[in-house]
Amino acid sequence: MSSKKTRKRKAPKRVARGAKDRLTRVQTTVGTKPSQPEPVTLGSEAEEQFKLLRAAIEIGSGFELFFVASDSRVTLDEVRQRLQHTADKGTKTHLSWLHFDNPAQLIELTERLIAVPSDPRQRILIWVSTCGIDDEQRAGWSRGLALLNERRNLLVKECPQAIVLAGPTWLPVVASDVAPDAWSVRSSVFVLPSAVWPASADWIDHEPRRYLWELMDHELAPAEHYRQLADALGASPRQAEQATRARLLHQAAHVHAMRGEPDVALDTLELAKDIWAKLGNEHGRASVLGEIARILFSKGLVDEATKLHQEKLGIVERIGSQRERAVSLSDIARILFSQGKIDEAKKLYQETLGIRERLSESEPDRADYQRDLSVSYERMGDLYRALGEGDKAREAYLKSLAIRERLAEAEPDRADYQRDLVVSLTKLAVVDDVQAGEHLHRALGIARTMKESGRLDPVDERMIPAIEQMIEQLG
Amino acid sequence: MEEAIRRAYNQCKVDEALDWGDKRYVDLNGLGVRGTDHSCTEFLFHSVEMSDRATHQLFSGFRGCGKTTELKHLARRFSEAGYNVIYVDADAYLNLRVPTNISDILVTVCAGVDSFLEDGAGDKERPMRRFWDRLHAFLNNEVKAEELTLGAAGVNLKLSFKDNVDFKTKLYQAVQARIPELAHECQAFLDESLGVLAELHPDNQGTVLILDSFEKLRGDLGTAAAVRASIEEVFIQNWKYLQTPFHAIYTVPPWMAFMEAGTAAEFGQFHMLPMCKVYDRGHNQDEKGVDALLELLDKRFVLDDVFASRAPIVELILASGGYPRDLLRMVREVLLRAGMEERPVPIQEDQLQGIVDLVIAGLSEQFEAALDDSDTEALAAVAEKHSLAEWGRDNLQRLADLFDHHFVLSYRNGKTWYDVHPLLLLSRTGKLPKAIEKRREQQKD
């Protein structure tokens, strides 16, 4: 099942995090008491792995290094909570939980492990975990494990405890790559399939992997953060790590561009482009070309931007990605529109719309296809408005709004869907004299709610006074 | 859970190098299962014994093959033969993640000698100035690097050298143009040390320095290529600085065996500790090797007390490729499962066989997961030809990675030969067996 399909599920909460805070915060919790967990069935294979892990902790002595891997964060949490529960029941084991809220802080892993106090009366089990975007975790673990590898002898000597490194299923592979000394003295690796959840948590198994581009702008860390993580993967010969590195560089470039540093962004994107080219990954290369073109366009380099968009278009047509083809056509149309070439722009926007209508009809459950379609209707609305064809513009905006309302209803926690609603309602108000006030008041209400709940991107806060002003002008 | 299982589990830990006198030690060299024609440690020992001049030898081996254990026993042997043995763990002084430098190694060697003298002097007053004080003076007077010496005399300098990467970087930059002077300073210290050692131990045969753990120098993903280049530079261009006035054995990464002829010529033969041979090139079981590894296990716990049959254990031995650390890890996994299932000892053959099958499959999956598709073709060539001839010098880094993963193991039987780890051939999805099959079909065509 595709992770992009519309589902009735809780999306991960988008908690506002200041960029600076994100770099400096390390949440290290030692011996935290677990909250009362809802009973969870791990499934027969994972249950057996759990029993083995528990037995290994029980019978082992001195330094032991375990890897516990699962692609389900909740499975890992469940295992940790069970071990904690066992420890709390008066066994001779004490669980210390080192959780790194920011994967970049895994560079402190070795020091943190050594600093866990030993206790002659009981065996210490140190559970190490992190969280965050998949790419960030991969880079963070790479850096932390490389350092741990270097100080492996010291660790064995100074930390005669049972250490559990818990993470996604790629964690053991990364460890074998970047930390061969530590890997060679591992005790055991336990791989747990995703758990079978209680009814109230049925959304968990379907939680999509979050990629960097799913972040709201205000969730972005400073560009240096992504750059450092990308550098940590440096000369890895493994394709997965290089793809991660390219995505991190892409993200660093995105932040540079937002920060008003287009030239740095372009240099960084060139690095990412080279990596995708070496990997022979046309999707990745096309994605970077599109980003470069958008930055060039923002710098007023229209011809260069158009050329790159067309190069990207050629790639996506070759690899047969209709969705990406629509994005390219839309980007080119946008440039033409800005140049006043309305007819040419209209032609491309209509072609884009046709592609997106076909895609959304073929897979109506896919939220991303639906959202793309809403964007196309919006663009058509913009175009008709520019042509002075108010009724057609209104019709297009209404179609866009209808889709967005469905998406927002299905996933009310998605801040980006709420933002889409605000945009749709505001644009609709401009071409709908009769209900303009109603649309604007609704838009304002949504924006204010977002702000109050910390889900409004700071750069979007200006939308509130702007809408208020529009209402005032309506009288 | 049976106490015998618990005890056996803890006797098979994979992170221990065995010290002299450890009852678990099995002399695999002596048994001739690391190659009947050639025993590395014998060669190292006799090269020193027979030479009337200081010898400088390179020693290598795959991670976990027993290198440190063998070096510790060699050190003891030298000691019993009347040598001062200075055993330096490079791990204690070098930052193994950043590119090295000849000054790095010189300082490490001197630091090791300094520490040996310090320990040997006991309560007596030290007859010569400490190395760190000399280095401090050198930096102060010759290099005039105030930022390096300010408040960093003696012990502080030692601490900075061990723990402060930034300090070391500055140190290298500062002495870059003064390498000969630094080498001269170190040489003077070592010469003087040699005299002191002769006075302290007038009856001794001489001094042997063993620099262990240097082979671990590999860098991280961002620095691996630079680190490898730096090692080449040390051993190709700056080898003369490593000609200490006493015998020295330097451990180096295994991939150095493939550097062009002459690289290690100044050091005489390059000694690589092979794996225990459990089968020959035709994959026929080598009884002697298998028996040696059974003995290795038997010295850790009484095999027959725990296992009712040895046949499944022999399967583990063959699956390990003669790599002791993987064998111990698999035996532990077997014991763990048996313990979890509350099996009584001795574990009966049918039960044991079921567990052994699961353990081999599990570890094989781990190997398979770490195997990158881009390596299967080259590994298929190794499996067929038992040589690394198809690996050019340009691929040294990738070769180093394959050694690190133990995808390729080395053996010796008259000459050194290579094979892929048996666990790669046993995987369920069979990436490598498929590549081998494909290669055979291509050759037929």
Structural features, described:
The complex is a heterodimer of chains A (475) and B (445). Chain A is an alpha/beta fold and 475 residues long. Chain A has 20 helices and five strands. The radius of gyration of chain A is 25 Å and the shape is elongated. Chain A starts with 18 loop residues before the first helix and ends with a helix. The mean pLDDT of chain B is 84. In chain B, the strands form two sheets. A five-stranded parallel beta sheet of chain B has the order 2-3-4-1-5, sandwiched between helices. Chain B has a two-stranded antiparallel ribbon with strand order 6-7. Chain B has helices spanning 3-11, 40-50, 67-80, 102-121, 131-143, 146-149, 154-163, 165-175, 179-200, 224-236, 287-298, 303-306, 311-320, 324-340, 349-370, 376-385, 396-405, 422-425, 431-444; strands at 56-61, 83-89, 206-212, 247-251, 270-273, 408-413, 415-420. With 445 residues, chain B is of the alpha/beta class. Chain B contains 19 helices and seven strands. In chain B, α4 (102-121) runs parallel beside α9 (179-200) and α5 packs across α7. At the A-B interface, α2, α5, α6, α7 and α8 of A face α1, α14, α15 and α17 of B.
- Helix/strand/pairing class of chain B, anyone? alpha/beta
**What's the N-to-C terminus distance of chain B?**
57 Å
Shape of chain A: elongated
Terminal residue distance of chain A:
50 Å
Overall geometric form of chain B: globular
Q: How many strands of chain A?
A: 5
- SSE succession of chain B: HHEHEHHHHHHEHEEHHHHHHHEEHH
The helix content of chain B is 40-55%
Biggest beta sheet summary of chain A: 5 strands, parallel
Q: Supply the helix-strand structural class of chain A.
A: alpha/beta
Poorly predicted runs of chain A are 1-35, 198-210
H and E string of chain A: HHEHEHEHHEHHEHHHHHHHHHHHH
**Major beta sheet, strand line-up of chain A:** 2-3-4-1-5
Q: What do the pLDDT scores of chain A average to? A: 83
User: What oligomeric state do the depicted chains represent?
Assistant: heterodimer
| Count of helical stretches of chain A | 20
Biggest sheet statistics of chain B: 5 strands, parallel
